[in-house]
Design a protein that fits this description.
alpha+beta, Chorismate lyase, 7-stranded antiparallel sheet, 5 helices
């Protein structure tokens, strides 16, 4: 799978396996208007709320246990195990009139959800950004790739001593609005 790696903090990772869709090979670079969104640091939730001028609405798709693929396990688990049980949360971040702007997945290794990290177990309609970016600067490794659902950022964050994987795919509807209105994060 081809990807574009982007530096988002002190570290960089070129990991590329994405389960949000298959890579499209006919377009290797993102549109100029979407680049700021793919490269920005900080809370995507806060940045989308700035564009909306109101609180971001979340549509839960799935929240429960899933077995991680070996590639995903390697990204966020240093125990050497080839597969891990995780909590997977899939949501849509909604823009104007309930249109899905971003599809997101969050993966947390089940054994890492202890102490303060237990807050990640049942987020429901609470944006993950409200929890992750509460007065904390996060180390992030990111790769960017084009999937059949749109341009995607695959982020591995280190938060409170554990790693978690967050995959954010910008839907074509959002990409069109960004181009029309010149929105930047």
């Amino acid at each position: 799978m081809k990807h574009i790696s982007r530096r988002t903090s002190a570290a960089l990772s070129g990991r590329s396996q994405s389960n949000l869709g298959q890579l499209k090979s006919n377009q290797l670079t993102p549109p100029e208007s979407l680049l700021p969104w793919l490269n920005t640091t900080g809370s995507l939730t806060a940045q989308l709320e700035d564009v909306l001028g109101q609180k971001l609405q979340i549509r839960p798709v799935h929240e429960g246990f899933k077995l991680m693929s070996p590639q995903m396990t390697q990204q966020i688990d240093s125990t050497g195990r080839t597969r891990q049980m995780a909590i997977c949360r899939e949501v849509e971040l909604l823009g104007d009139q309930g249109v899905a702007w971003v599809s997101a997945q969050s993966w947390f290794v089940l054994s890492s959800l202890k102490g303060a990290r237990r807050r990640l177990k049942n987020l429901g309609r609470t944006p993950l950004g409200y929890v992750l970016f509460d007065r904390t600067e996060l180390e992030c490794h990111r790769c960017v790739c084009l999937t059949d659902q749109g341009w995607s950022r695959r982020n591995t964050y280190r938060w409170r001593g554990a790693e978690l994987l967050v995959i954010e795919t910008f839907r074509p509807e959002f990409a069109k609005l960004v181009q029309q209105h010149g929105w930047t994060p």
